[in-house]
Amino acid sequence: MKKRVLFICRNNSGRSQMAEGILRNMYGEHYHVQSAGSQPREINPLTVKVMEEIGIDMSSHKPTDLRELEGEEFDVVVSLCDETCPVFPGGKRYIHAEFPDPAGGDIARFRRIRDEIAEWIRTEFKPGDD
């Protein structure tokens, strides 16, 4: 049975969407992955662009409001904010991994944060290590 992972951030428009796409792409056979935010906004077009560059199509992704997931339980809830993060009470395990918000930055900033998230996921989520 796949472990359920939820990535959360305030807007669900950059970091949490990247993390969702990367984990699903790397280890989707081991994890059921979602992302959500407390104040969801449309996905940043640069998020979609930098993910396309690594072969992950996010053009149809939509932001999810954390309230839509109330009552659900996740094996792992990961907050990715570098500022005040939302809280989700339905986790068995909680991880905070701080990444800067790429919003307002140029494409190089989005790429750097994407790559940092990907490297973190490679080390944090190794199938069979849990």
UniProtKB/TrEMBL annotation:
InterPro entries tied to this protein: Ptyr_pPase (IPR023485), Ptyr_pPase_sf (IPR036196)
Q: Which Pfam families match?
A: LMWPc (PF01451)
CDD domains attached to this UniProt entry: LMWP_ArsC (cd16345)
**Which ranges carry the Phosphotyrosine protein phosphatase I domain?**
3-127
Task: Please name the SMART domains in this protein's record.
Answer: LMWPc
Annotated keywords: Arsenical resistance
Example of a GO biological process term: response to arsenic-containing substance
Q: Which PANTHER family match?
A: ARSENATE REDUCTASE
Q: What is this protein called?
A: Predicted phosphatase
* Native species: Methanothermobacter marburgensis (strain ATCC BAA-927 / DSM 2133 / JCM 14651 / NBRC 100331 / OCM 82 / Marburg)
